Amino acid sequence: MRVLILGAGFGGLELATTLSEAGGGDAFDVTVIDRGDAFVFGYSKLDVMFGRTTLDEVRLPYSAISKPGVRILQETITAIDPEALRVTTDAGSHEADALVVALGADYDYEATPGLLDANEFYSVHGANELAHVLPTFTEGRALVGVCGAPYKCPPAPSECALLLHDYLTERGVRDACEITIVTPFGKPIPPSPDASEALLTAFSDAGIGFHGGSPIVSIDNGRGVAVSGDGTEYPFDLFLGVPRHHAPAVVLESGMAEEGYISVASATLESKFPGVYAVGDVATVGVPKAGIFAEGAARIVAQALIHRQKHGDAPGAYDGKGACYIEFGQGRVGRVDIDFLSGPNKTGTLMPPSDALVTEKVHFGASRRARWGFEPAGAAAG
Ligand SMILES: Cc1cc2nc3c(=O)[nH]c(=O)nc-3n(C[C@H](O)[C@H](O)[C@H](O)COP(=O)(O)OP(=O)(O)OC[C@H]3O[C@@H](n4cnc5c(N)ncnc54)[C@H](O)[C@@H]3O)c2cc1C
Question: How far apart (Å, rounded) are the C-alpha atoms in residues 46 and 53?
């Protein structure tokens, strides 16, 4: 079976790995296409911006991956024909027996006037820029501003504010600075009342202001003012933005998107086009946009393709469960366990910060790096 995976991010890498293990080069001929030459974990952007590591350290080049039956091409996808299962790139065209769209979510900088001239920490480039800007910030008002929902990794703006508190404290300038978060949601993590409560307590302890309920809709860099949807003006000296998200343009132009993202059956991740699946941030499944959900969805699609090709076990239904780690500052890591699909209510249960969760988060990254082929399996222990 020729499987074409669009995007070598969280979802694409997990899918390629699982298919390779199940019969790469034999049952499956897998082609993964990505415009980039390296993967970067989302949470590494926070580490880079606060100078805990460098971009070179966290870039994971695709050239390291060598898996049976898998080839990774660095090409930019310019058109998707979901009826013909055909994809056009800047280098040619590709056809498949199964097509899996795992292109993530892009940022719509122009949707928020002024954002292009301010700082954002959601792209690799933006986080790396901030690594140079933050050392120059010694006094004034820092504003963590979310410009729209949905956005990737709902805890990340809270983590950014708490880590900024630590960063400024360590440099001895915290008393000369204010930190404020503005977000579209009324609570830091709406489906998890206990995680929201714990974060609000952490903000209060750290002297961080929280204003929920309306996104930032415009930024006047000249005046140093960001305006939220309800008309409130927030003065700032340093803006740390979360851009509005949308599906990549090539997806929007393909006719696959409905209400902004690709609509799929939540149990199977199959789109309305037979043989075409979508996983991760590019899909609308009713789960948050986070890597752990992209990975879980990719495993279900892998099961479906293995079943189709090798007549093995029937695939289970995607359960929408996943765990997100939350940096609470001062080296503390908590976890929120999300379950949005299996019961009548969306639930998010907080595991409070502990040393065990610090270790678990390290293992989370290391185990994926090893599994996806970025480093030898033995390295996962570290
Ligand atoms: C600050 C921050 C912290 C985060 N922390 C966490 C965390 O702790 N845990 C967690 O689970 N998630 C976290 N996330 C979210 C996580 O990074 C994403 O949700 C996850 O990467 C989504 O996986 P995906 O496979 O859907 O898409 P992605 O991983 O974004 O991959 C999509 C790929 O498609 C490629 N692509 C897009 N368009 C094209 C095109 N036209 N042609 C070719 N290639 C293209 C891109 O280059 C990219 O490699 C965080 C995100 C941020 C920003």
Answer: 9
Distance 281 CA to ligand 1 centre (A): 7
Report the distance separating Cα 276 and Cα 297, nearest Å.
14
Q: How far is CA 284 from CA 105, 256, 314, in A?
A: 11, 11, 23
Backbone angles phi, psi at 311, to 5 degrees: 55, 40
153: left (phi > 0), else alpha (psi -120 to 50), else beta? left
Kindly give, in sequence order, each residue whose CB lies less than 8 Å from that of residue 290, ignoring residues fewer than 6 positions away.
Answer: 42, 152, 153, 154, 322, 324
**Helix/strand/coil for 194:** helix
Atom number, ligand 1, closest to the C-alpha of residue 282: 26
Reply yes or no on whether the pLDDT at 379 is more than 70. Answer: no
Query: Which tens digit of pLDDT belongs to each residue from 42-51?
Result: 999 999 999 9
Asked if the 107-245 domain carries CATH number 3.50.50.60, the reply is: yes
* pLDDT tens sequence across 223-255: 999 999 999 999 999 999 999 999 999 999 999
* Pocket flag, ligand 1, residue 59 (CB < 6 Å): no
Distance 85 CA to ligand 1 centre (A): 23
Query: Distance, CA 208 to ligand 1 centroid (Å)?
Result: 28
Share of the chain above pLDDT 70, in %: 98
In CATH terms, are 2-105+247-318 and 107-245 the same topology?
Answer: yes
**Domain 2-105+247-318 has what CATH class?**
alpha beta
Number of H helices, E strands in the chain: 9, 26
Q: Where are the domains of the chain?
A: 2-105+247-318, 107-245
Q: Which of 157, 218, 146, 209 is nearest to 180 (CA)?
A: 209
